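We emphasize that the prediction below concerns an isolated chain of 510 residues; any contacts that depend on oligomerization or on bound cofactors are therefore not represented. The input was used exactly as deposited, without trimming of termini.
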Amino acid sequence: MKEIKGTTGLCALLGNPTGHSLSPLIHNNLAYMTYTDMAYITFEPDKDNLGDAVKGAFALGIKGLNVTVPYKEEVIKYLSGTDPIAKAIGAVNTLVRKEDGYYGYNTDILGFIRELKKNNFSLSGANVVILGAGGVARAIAFACVNEGASRTIILNRSVEKAQNIKTDIFEYFGEDAKGRIEAGPLEDSEQLDIENILLVQTTNVGMYPNTEEILLSESVLYDKAVFGFDVIYNPYETAFMKKLKQKGKRAVNGLPMLLYQAEEAYKMWFDVEITNSMEFVLYSKLKDALGLNKDKNAKSPGQNNENIILVGFMGSGKTTLGKWIAKHTGRTLIDTDREIEAMTGLTVKEIFDTEGESYFRKLETEYLEKLVNEKKTGLVISVGGGTPVAEKNRELLKKTGTVVYLRASAGELMKRLRYDVRRPLLQGKDGRERRLLIEDMLKKREPAYMSAANIVVRTDGVYFPKIYQIIRKKIRGSGMSGYKKNYPKNNYRPRRRQRNEDTGNKRPQS
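Result of the prediction step, given as a token string:
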């Protein structure tokens, strides 16, 4: 466990939401490896408070910030300055502290260039075709022109978006971009007079779980390509990459780019060296977090097909984590509240209002009985906050699979639920009244959650990939002991860290 001292510095991620982010994993491990006295956390300001968040972070002495969606563009107006190319792109992802405020950079460009160089591909004099015209495509197009690519062609279904990138590149590079940047519709791909291309796929087509999808199922571009780059990294080998490899061409995914852009930000904040050994460990940790090291078949939940059942108080993250697990492991997500709504044609609130809570609890039990009888496997099941209160429901849950209690503190729950108007039990409550209700209900329900659970995971400040890692290891029965990686000889190997979990009737760590 990291020791937090009075001298410990702070860096953070600004975004909303941030629970899925891998930035804390990367930066906190970098701090540990480089002996930097720093902790990295996440903040989720509302859009209306973004300016105050940036100003407050500066006032509190926060060393540096990363920025993710939806604030990469919006945050620029609150900065003391912006790197010229990042300003031209119109998006920043890294803020560096200066005397009069934060200065903005875009390290996505640096991450892209570094991954190409690691694969011995130079953009200087290259021919590039970019599929897609979103934010990542914009950064990559700027990088290609900036690094001296001979021709960069942006193809997109919406030609207007591709043309906008072309226009902005002309405005930034001037005459230097003349004849080197083009834009057109995706259907022009078969008529392009271009050879020996770097083919870059920047859309989300083919992203897990739709792993068989591909933007261009057949195209002469695959024959003309000498190298392929897909920004997607889950699945680890996309349909786009497979198509290129079938043609005998090299192709890589975007996971190294994710790591490199974070490393470039870290080096902007701290004057440190990041070695190849450190990168090896970080890359392995990223693959672990995404379930890519051991679960090589993206459609398989892994070695143990037993159902994962998520229980906990409202706002503990059951539904959101369930979606994350389903997306990254191939499990089928079942949200019992949504299933009951589908069966009745009423929302949970409408059921409470018209039939009362006892009727809704009866429907919960009936649905759990249905799950037990169906004996399906490979599921991740999110249940309502009050489901485990009934002893019969707890018995049914344990018959269905491994029950995981997502344990959150009252303070954290209040933070997550402070603007929530959907929960029937919170209707008409706000401020202190809502806080007292949450504390009282959590105190009453805690024994039921603990009784139902096979695994208990504290979720305050813990990101989704780490939570899933804990669950997966416990289900497999390996824990941390005996969990080994094959590190290169004489290279860095991190020390074992304290777990944030409990099982059975053990008391959770405080």
